[in-house]
Design brief:
34% of the residues lie in helices and 25% in strands. By secondary structure, it is an alpha/beta fold. Strands 3, 4, 5, 6, 7, 8 and 9 form a seven-stranded mixed beta sheet that branches. It has a two-stranded parallel sheet with strand order 1-2. Helix 2 links the parallel strand 1 and strand 2. Helix 4 packs across helix 5. It is globular, with a radius of gyration of 22 Å.
Length: 248
């Protein structure tokens, strides 16, 4: 009887400790897109599997006392969600912004890797667009709701998602689109489009933009990022998604 009582007491203590630890765990919410966009960065090429961003947060979680909770929001709501605090962070390249500054409401993490976004054409006409100037005042396919730091230099033609953007290029509704390179390669393969990378649109460090009220967690996050780089976990995630991304 004493053994049983001690066992029950031990189980109670362990359960209480586990509950206390869970209560002390920090939670950060982030958007994973209800529309399945930005393959493979935001969502995976295979339905039902996590994209690179989700796998990164899972890896950071293993090295810190932070739980990352994904939520699915439509694109327009996602933009507002970070501003009003419905989500706690997003992933971004500062080079996408007009000012290259994150703003006083946020802090930024250590970088993960480098992302390249290009002006993309059909391969047969890629030579027509060798410079940024060659695209001035031209119609360019873009994603509705996305921000482009230089959209005053060309004429936006907005589409709902990357898939329809590539299809618009395939059917020659316009000559040029802007897409992140890994995403472009994915949808070009899906839709059998022979694309060419014209001039570079942007190149920058991919990092977390976190609401300033959580800046106390930044040292834990940065240390975890360094660990997943050093351990090879980050490279394994990128390899799993068949990318050619360079780790910084």
């Amino acid at each position: 009887m004493r053994v049983i009582c001690r066992l029950v007491a031990l189980i109670y203590i362990l359960t209480s400790l586990s509950s206390a630890a869970e209560k002390g765990q920090h939670k950060l919410y982030f958007d994973v897109d209800s529309d399945g966009g930005w393959v493979p960065i935001l969502t995976a090429a295979q339905p039902g599997y996590p994209g690179i961003m989700t796998e990164i947060t899972e890896a950071i979680q293993r090295h810190s006392n932070i739980k990352f909770v994904p939520v699915k929001l439509p694109q327009k709501r996602a933009e507002v969600a970070l501003t009003v605090g419905s989500v706690d962070f997003d992933f971004i390249c500062l080079e996408w912004l007009k000012t290259l500054e994150v703003g006083p409401e946020y802090v930024i993490s250590e970088p993960f890797f480098e992302l390249k976004e290009s002006f993309i054409t059909l391969k047969k006409i890629v030579q027509l667009f060798p410079t940024r100037e060659s695209l001035y005042n031209k119609y360019v396919g873009t994603i509705a709701g996305y921000f482009y730091f230089d959209d005053d230099t060309f004429i936006r033609t907005d589409f709902l998602d990357e898939n329809h953007l590539i299809l618009g290029l395939k059917h020659e509704r316009f000559d040029v689109i802007i897409l992140e390179q890994e995403t472009a390669k994915h949808w070009a393969k899906v839709n059998d489009v022979d694309i060419g990378f014209a001039v570079l649109h942007s190149k920058g460090n991919f990092l977390m933009r976190i609401r300033k009220k959580h800046q106390g967690l930044l040292p834990l996050i940065n240390q975890a990022i360094k660990q997943i780089k050093a351990s090879g976990e980050l490279q394994a995630i990128l390899d799993k998604h068949n990318t050619e991304i360079n780790i910084l």
